[in-house]
Amino acid sequence: MSPIATDISSSLASFPAKLASVLPASASVPTSTLRLPHFSAPLPANKPYVLESDEGETITLVGSGSVMRYLATAKETDDQFAIVHTRARADEPVPAHFHARTHDTFLCVRGSMKVWENDQCRILGPGDFASVPPKCVHAFQPLGPENEFIGIISPGSWTKMFNYIGEPYMTSPTFPWNEDRPFPVPLFIEAIKAGEDVIPQREYAYPEAKPMSEDENTLPNDTTPYFLKADCGPKYFLATQSCSPLTLARNTNDHFALSVLAGIGSRDRFPAYTAAAESPAGQGPFHSGRKLRLASHSLFRVIEGKVAFDVEGGADTEEVVTTGESVMVPAGRAFSYAITSAYARMYVFSGKGGGLEEVFVRAGREGKSGEVVGGHEDASVEESKVDEVVKALGGEIV
């Protein structure tokens, strides 16, 4: 490894110690909470945690004008996946390449971005999604003045690539908008020579970009590359909640899944809403205070509203999680959640074997085009069917 790459790698390795030296004593939190201290790194392996908005280990890719934060890494997911949240300015396209073994994804959260997949290119807006399986030639480009996107990458250890071309970033929660250093091409080449799973495609003919279409509303039955327009895909309903899969186990060789879960609060808090469940115990797959214990790792990131989580082996009390915050539930930990605002949405990331999204797909009702959560017909659920599905997934209800 070159001296420059060694310096960057060493800097990343010493990142947690550097943080400890600059954080005030007030950064500590009580042991009775799942919430991690300010700017925690590394994340705790095999333990549940709550990561607050724009917290966690943060790096910038040299020359990119972007910052990336890890919501989960290979260590927390047994290398099944890593989840990276990126804030970025408009920039040049990342050069076309493919991965021999790594599955990449792009979920636009704010602003817009181009994503190239083989002979197709789309302009993604908030909520639009692109799945990039191994051997798919791809590139991407942030377009707006302020952009956000989330990527779930499998295997999670692929993020070691960032050790070559990235460095710790502790200046602010936002990105370095005036970054003017060149992209470190020599370090990029060195990473490839070291065996990192990136194969450049210098002769790639970048196809013309097209806007997303409402016809891009289905998930394939295999690992074919695809685009999915926001709010246009399949949706499954279960007791005042809905689940909209963006990618399922069948699309990722059973490595991970990603969906959007939406729900309304319970009637004991919002009595005017007649479509609401009578109490939190009747929301989604949870009844009579029961919890789910799934065989897959799960991470929940709240998009809007408030959600209360109760995780086995976690906090002494429920953790109320709000916009931009994430909850990690390791495989085998029983948990439940309840919508505590009038309405809430959250991303659900699941690992090998299928997670909460499969409970909705198999035990829920497939929705009609344009249907949203809140129909009276979904006020109850067949508990025995949920039990059967959870058991088939290798989990249990406790």
UniProtKB/TrEMBL annotation:
Transmembrane portions of the chain: none
Residue ranges annotated for the Cupin type-2 domain, each copy included: 94-144
Superkingdom in the source lineage: Eukaryota
CDD domains, sorted: cupin_QDO_N_C
Gene3D superfamilies listed in its UniProt record: Jelly Rolls
Name of this protein: Cupin type-2 domain-containing protein
